[in-house]
Amino acid sequence: MPMYVVGHKIPDSDSICGAIALAYLKNQIGEEAIAARLGEPSPETAFILERFGFEAPLYKEHYAGEQVYIVDHSELTQAPDDIAEATIVGIVDHHKLGDLTTSTPLECWIRPVGCSNTVIKMMYDFYNVEIPKNIAGIMMCAILSDTVIFKSPTCTTADIKCVEALAEIAGIEDYKALGMEMFKVKSAVEGTPVRDLVMRDFKDFNMNGNLVGIGQLEVIDLSVFDQVKAELEADIAALKAEGNRHSVLLLLTDIMKEGSEMLVVSDDADLTERAYGKATENGRVWLDGVLSRKKQVVPPLQEAFA
Amino acid sequence: MPMYVVGHKIPDSDSICGAIALAYLKNQIGEEAIAARLGEPSPETAFILERFGFEAPLYKEHYAGEQVYIVDHSELTQAPDDIAEATIVGIVDHHKLGDLTTSTPLECWIRPVGCSNTVIKMMYDFYNVEIPKNIAGIMMCAILSDTVIFKSPTCTTADIKCVEALAEIAGIEDYKALGMEMFKVKSAVEGTPVRDLVMRDFKDFNMNGNLVGIGQLEVIDLSVFDQVKAELEADIAALKAEGNRHSVLLLLTDIMKEGSEMLVVSDDADLTERAYGKATENGRVWLDGVLSRKKQVVPPLQEAFA
């Protein structure tokens, strides 16, 4: 029985590239594996796949009765809806430990690094499997994306060394230029429906019983949002109501200025004051130096809900 | 700030030896670590520690505000009572994924092998740290204990290879003889208070909201229990009442005959029928071939509660 290797809902480049890279590795060591996805590739991911000649993995929603290897999270809210009826055989991740549980032993490769693909590289090294050129390319791009070309506070020396090694395998001389090209693709918001922008990199978290949705858009210049900010605000308010959420937060991250404007709709008017020591004014708050949802946005928020 | 490396409540040899071995490794790679324990070493563990010249790790109950590295489980019921107020920096384990969660990224080295010390050996290899002779000895004994000298269905080729490598480092020629010596120590039940026997290797599980306690005594001949079986049965009934448990099960495992007699007190008279297809008669049921609580006892029970 093959295992399906699948990342989180609303997949980012780490989830998609990680699924492809890990499925290849598993097949090389004699464990049949199929890369899968829970949603459409983002424009950034589509750019990466095309650049290195890959098709998107299999779109698959249901996993009851299947073996599943989870990539890039360990949260029920980010897993397939029927994950409780599947057998989780492994997890590769770089986030906090979430609420997925299993009834049988499994493997977990979880490390506090900047990207799941950095951990997958460690798995290739452990099994002594050679990484094909094009797979090295997509793994490298996933790490450049997750670490915001090494600017994110989540970036570790392991991530940097990993990108350097993968760039050499992939034959990419100027990987930072490729990273910037990628972020330019990511910054093109014009012509995209507002809901698509909000959902592009959106994750729901269970915070002490409260459902909190947090989206993030990383761009090279926040001015791209000037024309659509009011629409974004209206849309996250609608999303909060639709999903019965306590709060919906949207991070507009400027990777060059290295900070984020957070758009906030919440049942708790003091939420950002308590979590980040900065009050929300007219539904907006600027968080200087904040690039990472995982490291800088989620943990203080969880404390605020505790 | 040092991290405390600590195994589960009612520690077995894997928890104690693993804490010592992992704390040593962490200190070698520049991360200050202190081995700790949540309870008294069993006679088997005391034998191992004495054989290789170790003191028992620090007894420490409270961890609020501390950094903790969890060994040999990922379950709230088996962790320090105040674990929610501590920061879990890592987990090394070989069981199903439990209900521990964190609010920050961590490392998890979890593999479906027979013993946490087999995973800790992988960590030594990853960091390229030499294992001292005496630490190799206690790691080897922990693996021989958890895998019942390779007889348990939880034993993998990784465990066997690991024992062989550790035996060579420790300079032990006949490791199976040492294993049998260890199980003879484990089999000496005479003169031990009945409650101590029941609790010697006892774990509580949350099964779909029901608290289920499962103890196990592994011996080389079940006849050692002839004189005390009635007392054991009275004591697990008392334990069930005291702890508000749905069921208390005690496995009397014969490692030579390779099977277990299960003593059962439960709110559900059909529990073993539903879980194992064998009815309990007069509070007892023989489970042929059953050596492993983790692999053969817990998963079917969880299914029965699902």
Automatic annotation (TrEMBL), chains A, B:
Pfam families linked to this entry:
DHH, DHHA2
One GO CC term on file: cytoplasm
Q: Which residues cross the membrane?
A: none
Which GO terms fall under molecular function for this chain's record?
inorganic diphosphate phosphatase activity; metal ion binding
What enzyme class is recorded for this protein? Answer: hydrolase
Enzyme Commission code: 3.6.1.1
- Spell out the reaction equation it catalyses: diphosphate + H2O = 2 phosphate + H(+)
| Entry-linked InterPro entries | DDH_dom, DHH_sf, DHHA2, DHHA2_dom_sf
Task: Write out the entry's keywords from A to Z.
Answer: Hydrolase, Manganese, Metal-binding
Q: Does the keyword Coiled coil apply?
A: no
Q: Which SMART domains match?
A: DHHA2
| Protein name, entry field | inorganic diphosphatase
Source organism of the structure: Shewanella loihica (strain ATCC BAA-1088 / PV-4)
